[in-house]
Amino acid sequence: MTEAFDWRPVYRFWFPPDVRSTDIADHWRLLQWWMGGGANGELARFAPVLEAAKAGRLGQWLAEPEGRLSLIIVLDQFTRGLLADTREAFASDAEALGISREGLENGHYKALAGPWERFFFLLPLAHAEGPDHSDRMERVVAMSEEALARAPAFLRPVFAFSLSQARAHRDVIARFGRFPHRNAVLGRVSTPEELAYLEKGDFVYNRRPPVS
């Protein structure tokens, strides 16, 4: 049980050896595993870690960049995998946002060398609804543009897709001020414009990578 409350098992699970591959096909597969729910079937063993994180018992993880990133992944990603289709899936977004913001200020974000590490470090800025969401989405788009420029040549198609997703999420927030696809599970009443959007069903998070 001691290991379950160490950040390293989370980090090793979320960033498997393929993340260091120079084969772009491996990275497309990883992106689909992360974003397409492929990891969800393996998350049950991390349920106690999520409970500890939600209870505020993993503050020691914040002492180093990889530990902070691991806590972000637990609060931002494991919530969505373990608590899908419930309001609890989004209940830790504000906390993850605060942890990410603090890491952007204290140098932890810049200390992460891997492009995928930085990608997941930023996700709470995009995921957490709130009054400054549009400003945060503009920052995410700008940093995604920087990530594309820094990415190794073989990875640029993957990060170009990531940038397109960031821009699309920015447009949704600019239009509605929130994610309408969350309305039902959060008990919110959709506006007529949101109902038209929901009826269309072209949700950004459902778009899959254009793997050739």
From TrEMBL:
It comes from the Bacteria. It holds the Pfam family DUF924. This is Uncharacterized protein (DUF924 family).
